[in-house]
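Dear H.,

Thanks for agreeing to be a second pair of eyes. The structure we're designing against is below in token form, covering all 300 positions.
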């Protein structure tokens, strides 16, 4: 069954040579539902000057009619997976209410796309994924959150976060980018000038834009995925933010002392179908966690 959405990603020559990109795309093509197209955004050269030989695209998966090789002039780093997809939609006058982003080194479960697509109807005008990060002000660290890690203490099947993690598949409304495209491009330029290293951290940059546009960032309950190079990094490694100095970049461009990703009570009821924490005292949680949940969800 086909669903009316486009999936977008980018990759590096080495990822294709080692057939990681092919396996990631193949896992989508073998899913329970199929997107209209999978847009693979390819720059003329990588930021390190590597070129993409035409022979890289000889593999059958790249000849699948659902896969589009979208060539762009400039490499923008990982943010190209979003901006390249937006440009493809613009250039071809394609209408799509949402765009889904994936990474090029993940094997996605067959039911993941269907689950994400079905869930997005429940949370209109929100960005959704299956993993994210929240800022812990006490130890000044970004904490990786996912239901399969059993570290989300929130009733129901969703919670809010500061940053959505693209590697686990995310869905964004396209209008928040395409209706403000010139502003989006200026935002990218200003952000990359302010923090040059942020060009390597698409999750922070995209989530910063979402926050400015007041778009809730929601983590859904979903299955575990697998990185092609092995299982997910240890939770302690992710929490240390060792990938791209995420901690320092987050503090440079994202951090606000009073920033809380949880909506106010009224917004919570609007977005959620779950009754807000009437039975929280029956949860088997320490008192400090119950108090923290109340504070996060009902903060004003």
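And this is the sequence the design step returned. I haven't edited it by hand at all.
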């Amino acid at each position: 069954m086909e669903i009316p959405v486009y999936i977008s990603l980018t990759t590096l020559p080495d990822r294709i040579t080692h057939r990681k990109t092919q396996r990631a795309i193949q896992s989508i093509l073998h899913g329970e539902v199929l997107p209209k197209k999978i847009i693979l955004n390819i720059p003329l050269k990588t930021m390190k000057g590597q070129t993409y030989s035409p022979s890289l695209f000889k593999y059958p998966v790249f000849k699948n009619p659902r896969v589009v090789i979208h060539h762009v002039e400039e490499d923008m780093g990982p943010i190209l997976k979003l901006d390249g997809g937006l440009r493809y939609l613009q250039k071809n006058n394609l209408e799509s209410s949402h765009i889904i982003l994936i990474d090029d080194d993940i094997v996605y479960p067959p039911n993941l796309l269907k689950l994400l697509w079905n869930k997005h109807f429940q949370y209109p005008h929100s960005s959704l994924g299956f993993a994210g990060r929240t800022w812990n002000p006490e130890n000044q660290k970004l904490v990786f959150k996912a239901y399969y890690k059993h570290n989300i203490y929130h009733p129901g099947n969703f919670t809010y976060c500061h940053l959505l993690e693209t590697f686990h598949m995310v869905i964004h409304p396209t209008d928040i980018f395409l209706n403000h495209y010139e502003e989006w491009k200026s935002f990218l330029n200003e952000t990359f000038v302010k923090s040059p290293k942020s060009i390597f951290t698409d999750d922070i940059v995209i989530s910063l834009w979402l926050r400015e546009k007041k778009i809730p960032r929601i983590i859904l309950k979903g299955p575990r995925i697998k990185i092609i190079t092995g299982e997910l990094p240890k939770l302690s490694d992710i929490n240390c933010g060792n990938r791209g100095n995420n901690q320092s970049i987050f503090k440079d461009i994202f951090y606000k002392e009073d920033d809380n990703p949880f909506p106010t009570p009224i917004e919570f009821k609007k977005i959620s179908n779950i009754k807000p924490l009437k039975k929280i005292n029956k949860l088997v949680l320490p008192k400090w966690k119950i108090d923290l949940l109340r504070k996060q969800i009902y903060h004003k």
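Two observations from my side: The longest helix spans residues 181-194. Confidence is low (pLDDT under 50) at residues 231-244, 264-283.

Warmly,
E.
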